[in-house]
């Protein structure tokens, strides 16, 4: 029997719409600059030769509808509303034509970001870990199985802060849609059930403070919500 030096942490898992079972989260991949208008507002050019990625720990998972404290070390905490892909079958070196066979379902996601730390790291060409891999920053709605929602390639994506619309776009504007993303990422990783891909955010990102209520939606995938709590 395996013995640990201290109690092992509980494995993070997300609800599945219409299913009593949970989706165990293995890894979280995030796509950068996947909407042209967002790249412009961040002051950078879109690289159309290949997508690029950063990662978050699976322990950054935060379920929709909860409250997460304003994180330490930042004075500029941003929301980013995104389509999330949940992988349900192994995928390694797959082509775009067959890539969607690996998808279990889709969800709404919030990639919460310490923007000041991200931009400071970017300015000196350092990794974005402190800005992006933030505790309780990978917010996720219930995962909607493919059998229910199909493979969304277009549809409204919106985010509101305290009832005011801040992001409004369409999935059809993704520079790298889901199938090419999976095909590209599978050239570098053995994608497996439990992996999540946050596909990038459109323009309109901005800061939130303690007490703010974030609400978002994606057509056909339902809603997501997060309340920003007081700093710890």
Automatic annotation (TrEMBL):
**Where in the numbering of this chain does the Fumarylacetoacetase-like C-terminal domain appear?**
28-227
Could you tell me which Pfam families the record lists for this protein? FAA_hydrolase (PF01557)
The record's InterPro entries line, in alphabetical order, gives:
Fumarylacetoacetase-like_C (IPR011234), Fumarylacetoacetase_C_sf (IPR036663)
What are the recorded GO MF terms, alphabetically? hydrolase activity
Q: Which UniProt keywords apply?
A: Hydrolase, Metal-binding
Q: Which domain of life is it from?
A: Bacteria
Under what name is this protein listed? Fumarylacetoacetate hydrolase family protein
Name the source organism. Answer: Tistrella arctica
């Amino acid at each position: 029997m395996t013995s640990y030096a201290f109690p092992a942490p509980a494995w993070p898992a997300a609800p599945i719409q219409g299913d009593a079972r949970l989706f165990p989260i293995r890894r979280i991949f995030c796509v950068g600059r996947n909407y042209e208008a967002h790249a412009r507002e961040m002051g950078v050019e879109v690289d159309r030769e290949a997508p690029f990625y950063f990662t978050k720990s699976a322990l950054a998972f935060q379920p929709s509808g909860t409250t997460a404290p304003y994180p330490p070390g930042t004075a500029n905490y941003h929301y980013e509303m995104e389509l999330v892909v949940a992988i349900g079958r192994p995928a390694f070196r797959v082509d775009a034509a067959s890539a969607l066979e690996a998808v279990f379902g889709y969800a709404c996601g919030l990639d919460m970001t310490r923007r000041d730390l991200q931009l400071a790291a970017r300015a000196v060409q350092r990794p974005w870990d402190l800005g992006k891999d933030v505790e309780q920053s990978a917010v996720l709605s219930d995962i909607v199985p493919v059998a229910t929602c199909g493979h969304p390639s277009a549809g409204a994506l919106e985010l509101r802060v305290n009832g005011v619309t801040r992001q409004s776009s369409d999935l059809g504007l993704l520079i790298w849609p889901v199938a090419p993303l999976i095909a590209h990422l599978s050239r570098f990783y053995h994608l497996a059930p439990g992996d999540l891909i946050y596909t990038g955010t459109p323009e309109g990102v901005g800061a939130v403070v303690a007490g703010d209520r974030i609400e978002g939606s994606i057509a056909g995938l339902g809603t997501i919500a997060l309340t920003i709590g007081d700093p710890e």
